[in-house]
Amino acid sequence: MTLTTDAQTHQGPTVAQPAVPNDGPGLDPAQNPPVAEIFGQAAGPVTGPTGSLASRVVNLDNIAWTPFPMPGTAFKLLNINETSGATTILLYVSEGAQAPLHRHLGAAEAYNIFGNWAYEGEAEPIGPNCYVYEPAGVVHLPKQENESLMFGIFHGPIVGYNDDGSVAGVITADLLWDLAAANDAIAHLPARVGR
User: Fold this and answer.
1) What gap in Å lies between CA 87 and CA 78, rounded to an integer?
2) Using one digit for the tens of pLDDT, what is the confidence trace for 66-89?
3) pTM of the predicted model, to two decimals?
4) Which of 15, 52, 89, 168 is the most buried (most CB within 10 A)?
């Protein structure tokens, strides 16, 4: 877009209108052969479900609880995304368990199934049926009010800190896999690539 001056009305600069498709290949895929080919593939007949997606349905009662790298907590490893390194877990936090100060190197998402907790310094409590999004880079200190159960997706490692600010440990997809494997709690998962 460019700025133009309306010389007849002398109203100063006006914003030129962006070009929009009005006919031809911009609106009609049949007039754009490469696009028409993709549309044809997408609009083709479907003869049955795709078997290549390797969908998995798992009864979580059949997965053993594995101690999580924080006292008073346990997890069930549900998935590891081999492309991004994200992990999906069910996380149990017992009453009285307290997470250390920690940093999320990737975003984290949680659906709180039951229990109550909050972040130190933030007024909004997290209770049952709450969804929580934690952006990458956030450093916080959760405070547990009672036992809780949450479904979580970690989109990257978590760095835990000691009271003096030094690194206590790093939770990665590899660590969670190794812990669950040592607990015989990965039979429901596909073999990992490159491990």
Assistant:
1) 8
2) 999 988 999 999 999 988 989 999
3) 0.72
4) 89
Residue type, 143: K
Between the alpha carbon of residue 155 and those of residues 23, 27, 53, 92, 162, the distances in Å are 43, 38, 21, 19, 23
Cβ-in-10-Å burial (0-12, 13-18, 19+) of 160 comes to middle
SS3 sequence, the chain? CCEEECCCCCCCEEECCCCCCCCHHHCCHHHCHHHHHHHHHHHCCCCCCCHHHCCCCCCHHHCCCEECCCCCEEEEEEEECCCCCCEEEEEEECCCCCCCCEEECCCEEEEEEECCEEECCCCCCECCCEEEEECCCCEECEEECCCEEEEEEECCCEEEECCCCCEEEEECHHHHHHHHHHCCCCCCCCCCCCC
Token representation of residue 121: 């310094």
Structure tokens at 38: 């993709």
Q: How far apart are CA 86 and CA 174, in angstroms?
A: 10
